[in-house]
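Q: Here's a chain of 126 amino acids. Please give me its 3D structure as tokens.
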Amino acid sequence: QGPLVESGGELVQAGNSLRLSCTASGRTTSFEAMAWFRQALGKEREFVAGITLRGGSTYYLDSLKGRFTISRDNAKSAVYLQMSSLKPEDTAVYYCAAHSRRGFNIPTTETLYAYWGQGTQVTVSS
């Protein structure tokens, strides 16, 4: 098991909400930012949202603004993704990622994240 563990994925109906959690362990004090990515079946993994752990700055995939909210709890070494008004196209495996590169802020490129969780499945039924 790596330093990041996701939870909260489940089967939900369209229009409902869901909150994903990502808990970090180990060398979390070196993390500069954490992010959520998702990968739908047959598609490439895409950036969803990210947050810096010091200042709490956030960045979102444009199409998800207003429906998804990322937040952090540094005391718990946790990052959350609150998803609302879920749609069937939100169905994917959601991954938590982290990087420790100072000055890189919130990259949307997955290769810049060195730490990953195993993923949690979110399925939205119509």
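Q: Can you summarize the key feature?
A: The longest strand covers residues 92-99.
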